[in-house]
Write a structure and sequence with these properties.
The protein is an all-alpha fold. It has one domain (about 45-280): Ferritin, CATH 1.20.1260. The protein is built from 11 helices and no strands. The protein has helices at about 35-60, 65-95, 100-115, 120-145, 155-170, 170-180, 185-220, 225-235, 240-245, 245-250, 265-280. The radius of gyration is 19 Å and the shape is globular. Pfam families: Metal_hydrol (PF10118).
Length: about 280
């Protein structure tokens, strides 16, 4: 069994925050950019049902976990429930701004229904792969402030808060997988993990692209120029997808663990930023 490398001093801390309850969010809240707005809205549309699925998948294998992992699973569940709550509210504001997210939500249901026809261990493997995706996206989001530089303050705060906690609990699904497959041969474990990640990656890229284009269509923006603008936003500038490629590929390396790269310094930096922002709000 591979060495478990989640930091022994890691504490997963649910931060009960609420965002944007008092203000109406602009239709193009990403600095007036319809492409950036559509991409983040498309991602948010997946979270309420997707994160409920993550909770379901991890909790199915908590039996027999050591006390530290059991406590981390409990904190993971609490964080994910709050993420779902805040993205339900965020998605409601997108609806109020004129977007219909139902086609995107229906696609999530379609994918999850397929996974639920498989054995529960496949659902856990899919959760582990998607948790790696969210963790490396979160890392890049916090690492480079340009990603949210033009976003409205409440929306930016929501995404940064979410990113903090995705980094913090990035090892939970992986450690649960290692616990659940502890009797498997190492190559079998790696083969299943790798195949599921390739499947998840294909579906993630295809579905998020289609979802983003659907929201742009609702803005009356279609055609090759719009596709090119979306490609440039994702892979050019600010280039989120290009910048995570190396971290994505590391998942396939022998001995991989999400905490081989300890990025808690990003959490500390961002928590200080959010605390300063809240202080200025209080004393404004």
């Amino acid at each position: 069994m591979a060495r478990r490398t989640t930091p022994s001093d890691l504490t997963i801390t649910p931060r009960d925050r609420r965002f944007g309850r008092e203000d109406k969010t602009a239709r193009w809240w990403m600095g007036g950019d319809p492409v950036g707005t559509a991409l983040y809205n498309a991602l948010s549309a997946t979270f309420p049902k997707g994160e409920a699925f993550f909770v379901e998948s991890v909790r199915a294998f908590r039996e027999g976990a050591d006390p530290k992992l059991a406590a981390e699973i409990k904190a993971f569940v609490t964080q994910e429930v709050m993420h779902s709550r805040e993205h339900v509210a965020f998605n409601k504001r997108a609806h109020q701004a004129g977007y219909d997210l139902k086609p995107l939500e229906d696609r999530v249901d379609y994918r999850l229904d397929i996974v639920r026809t498989r054995p529960p261990i496949v659902a856990l493997a899919a959760t582990m792969a998607l948790e790696h995706f969210t963790a490396i996206l979160a890392h890049e989001l916090l690492k480079d402030p340009r990603h949210l530089a033009d976003a409205d303050p409440e929306s930016a705060a929501l995404w940064r808060w979410h990113a903090i906690e995705e980094i913090e609990h990035k090892g939970v699904a992986y450690d649960t997988w290692m616990h659940a497959t502890k009797t498997w041969p190492r190559f079998t474990r790696w083969k299943v993990k790798a195949k599921v990640m390739l499947f998840v990656t294909h579906n993630f890229v295809v579905d998020r692209t289609k979802g983003t284009l659907e929201l742009l269509r609702q803005d009356g923006l279609t055609g090759p120029r719009v596709w090119a603008r979306l490609f440039w936003f994702a892979f050019g500038n600010p280039g989120m997808m290009r910048k995570i490629l190396g971290a994505w590929a590391s998942y396939f390396m022998p001995g991989f663990h999400p905490w081989h790269h300890d990025d808690r310094a990003l959490i500390e930096r961002e928590e200080k930023r959010l605390a300063a922002a809240r202080s200025s709000e209080v004393y404004a």
